[in-house]
Amino acid sequence: MINIAILGFGTVGSGVYAVLQKNAGLIARRAGQEIRVKRVLVLEVTENPELFTSSIDDILNDPEITMAAEAIGGVKAAYPYVKALLASGRSVVTSNKELVATHGAELLALAKEKGVAFLFEASVGGGMPLITPMCQSLLANQVEEVYGIVNGTTNYMLTRMSRENMDFAAALREAQQLGYAETKDPSDDVDGPDACRKIAILASLAFGKQVHTQNIPTRGIRGLEPFDLRAAARLGCAVKLIAWARQTETGPAVGVEPMLVPLENQLAGVEDVFNGVLVRGDMVGNVFFYGRGAGKLPTASAIAADLVLAAQQGAAVHNSIFWEPSPALPAPLTSGEPATYYVRVKGLAASMLPGLYGPGELVADDGGQAAYLAENITPKKLYEAARQVKALGGSVQMELRRLEQ
Amino acid sequence: MINIAILGFGTVGSGVYAVLQKNAGLIARRAGQEIRVKRVLVLEVTENPELFTSSIDDILNDPEITMAAEAIGGVKAAYPYVKALLASGRSVVTSNKELVATHGAELLALAKEKGVAFLFEASVGGGMPLITPMCQSLLANQVEEVYGIVNGTTNYMLTRMSRENMDFAAALREAQQLGYAETKDPSDDVDGPDACRKIAILASLAFGKQVHTQNIPTRGIRGLEPFDLRAAARLGCAVKLIAWARQTETGPAVGVEPMLVPLENQLAGVEDVFNGVLVRGDMVGNVFFYGRGAGKLPTASAIAADLVLAAQQGAAVHNSIFWEPSPALPAPLTSGEPATYYVRVKGLAASMLPGLYGPGELVADDGGQAAYLAENITPKKLYEAARQVKALGGSVQMELRRLEQ
């Protein structure tokens, strides 16, 4: 029997408790031993003091507890608690992407040093298996690229904007009403920081070195208009917020940005709050993972699997799930490679766009604004063109790179 | 260091050798130790007798060899060799779906008894991670349903038939020219036995008991006409060969059949030789795996991962990847549940179809034959209607169940 502690009893923490209760029999069989929740850390104990405690020391001083699931969120309390647990020789699993993206290298090294596991399958893609298959099932592969839809809230909004011709504000209101987006400040989702943390984790795993969020150029979906989604549809594309990381000739490049996704790509079919991630390995080619990117029970299901993986493999799990520390870089991890870009320009005659952006295709022109698909243009040339648009009295409203398959 | 033997040196066997050479460094790092191919079993040794041997005894009597990758195919030689290797206390991994579907329960029990692993990730979906994520990453889930496209050859043919309005014979010729289908006898692919073996494996894993191929109603894509694919498109569906297994109220049901797949379903976007499988867990909901279902290096990449899994977990892997033996059943594992069916009927006025099939929609009628979408009809009623069609001088040319999401 493994005695564990759950830190936090909000949506995720109570979900872990529920899953471990509900499917206790099959989890015990597949884990080879029973997993029992001995203590749950909460801010204030209002019931069952045998189970609940508000003191981390009750967990740290209990030699029966050998593992913990961190479900507090944020880094303020989670970081010192997780550190203390690992330092005390206990494995820790978490869905806390901020913690992993920020302190991952340090916590992984600490786990390895102490002979325990620090795992975080649920931090990206919720219940959808991704990190373990990418690192273990594809271990014979060099991961050349990993990209996809990792934020369910913005994907829900884009789905609504595209299907119902809804504008950004209306889609955001709906997402807030449904509890997908924060009411007070939805910027973590809509402006990309959430997706940025997730791709930082995937990129760090793929490249084997800490990728810092501050080095990842990040743009969310604010500013997108139904005009853009209609124009994209005419080009045989969906608009999706894509988090991506790949090896380029000049080194790793990572980003978060809304992109044109050709309908043939599996990612174009990822709708509503679902997540989908493509991993390209040098031996296997493209593989694709898809599932519910969030939610109480799906996330808890991934945490339960990590508990078992930690019990089975211990610190050996970090032969495959690991990255080295690395300082933040002075410059963002951009790529200078040419690509096809959609640009929407206001206050300038559409006829001027080919001259500014080079060869391409006029996609839409409603008099007030025009959309142009510029082919094979470098980011540098794109920047140059935007400067000229401004000098001519116009303004670039939107730029969307087209995903190449 | 782990010394392994490879049995067979055809496409798969030489692929395993190539992957273990090419990515030796990263595999060693992630496995925690080097994996070295010490012997390769071939029918006739023509070079390098230090490596190649035609005698299984050279492998069985070599105490340094602790694992083997079986890549002979079929069961005639593979079955006794794998049995002997497991009996001698060596882990075995394989991509041999016939071996696993036929002798899986026995070989799994033998591996467990001997304290070693018998693994077969590559037997379904080639290099795409599926079996390990389904059994380990989703271990906190009761798998309620698993279904998908597991035969690349027929999926390639259906893609061509649908995109190019090609008939079955022409699509088959093309698949044969490209080496996707056997030239001599393509029936293993086109009539469903290959998909049947693969779903037998997935169903056995999901239900924990041996599901026998002879209990799986299996129908391939022979008889499908461009007429059907066009009619399906009008209904917002693709036609795909679906292998499926699910828990119904009356017990497990399993099948292989061409189906109407609504375009919203992830499976509709699986084209060419790719595979895609949906797994529904009671906690996580739907997750979807997609990748190249066959091919030398993708398959070898999955075999390499299994070698490492066997080394890491040993017999403990069979807490999660396992099924019990179970006798073949006297009756097929059908489901009597009602569904929506597409039927194509020849030699009967289209106007008679609603009377025979009940409520539904006339989809197409070219005078010679008509297609009807019968709603909410039981297999029993469908069979009854087909009998009546025949009695009235007509004939049912095709029946396609519609996949419900």
From TrEMBL, chains A, B:
Pathway: Amino-acid biosynthesis; L-methionine biosynthesis via de novo pathway; L-homoserine from L-aspartate: step 3/3; Amino-acid biosynthesis; L-threonine biosynthesis; L-threonine from L-aspartate: step 3/5. GO terms for molecular function: homoserine dehydrogenase activity. SUPFAM superfamilies: Glyceraldehyde-3-phosphate dehydrogenase-like, C-terminal domain, NAD(P)-binding Rossmann-fold domains. It is an enzyme of class 1 (oxidoreductase). Coiled coil: none annotated. Residues 8-121 form the Aspartate/homoserine dehydrogenase NAD-binding domain. The keyword Nucleotide-binding does not apply. InterPro entries: Asp/hSer_DH_NAD-bd (IPR005106), HDH_cat (IPR001342), HDH_CS (IPR019811), NAD(P)-bd_dom_sf (IPR036291). Belongs to the homoserine dehydrogenase family. This is Homoserine dehydrogenase. The lineage of its organism: Bacteria, Bacillati, Bacillota, Clostridia, Eubacteriales.
